[in-house]
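FYI - complex with flavin mononucleotide, inputs then prediction.
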Amino acid sequence: MSLEMSFKEVLAKRKSVKEFDPTVKISHEEMEEMIQYATTAPSSCNMQPWRFVIIDTDETKEKIKDLVQFNTRQLNTSSAFIFVLGDVDHFKTLDPIYQKSVDLGYMPQEVKDQTVGFLSQGLNLKEREYFLYNAMMDANLAAMQFMLVATSYGYDTNPIGGFERQEVMEVLDIDTERYFPVMMIAIGKGVKPPYNSSRHEVSEVISYNKGNNGQVGTI
Ligand SMILES: Cc1cc2nc3c(=O)[nH]c(=O)nc-3n(C[C@H](O)[C@H](O)[C@H](O)COP(=O)(O)O)c2cc1C
């Protein structure tokens, strides 16, 4: 599979699917290919704070089965649950990330040195909350791209916010100081057509240049 599907088709096809063919397995090679495309997403200062735990064994699924609230069917039938996390310590990777751009010939060494120096000064003053919000924004962008990429690869997905966050972190042995849970994404081959879902009209959700008596849009 690949990214051959038209973008229009991808957008139309991406629907939340809640029951999958349990016999379908996704190889680690294909999963990593999809993650690679997903992580072309933009991120704040290119720090790429997204992290992914791929839950694709019965043993690990069993460990979290009581922690996924009303999402048991997706857990039981999906090829995998992707646990998307944010790394709150992502600023520590600033130097190596920019150095990699230099090594790849994308950026001159002096520009890297200046940029990293400048950014480090600003980032040193920030509270944990700042990094947490950044990581949340960035990891969400990668999660969205992952779902679109997966659609293009012929898979179905379901973003999942309904799970016991802290308990899942503990059960999966993930440091809660450093990482925080963003969302799960169930992935597999759907067994029946997904439900359609309505959207607000564009006119209901936009305003040009300013709010309107404090309101944005009309709803
Ligand atoms: C952040 C987030 C959390 C969600 N959590 C769940 C969930 O826990 N269980 C579920 O069945 N669907 C969940 N959904 C799916 C939404 O219900 C679905 O995206 C929405 O109804 C629109 O339908 P569509 O995805 O088919 O376009 C979630 C979606 C998002 C974006």
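The two ends are 41 Å apart (CA to CA). The first strand starts at residue 50 and ends at 55.
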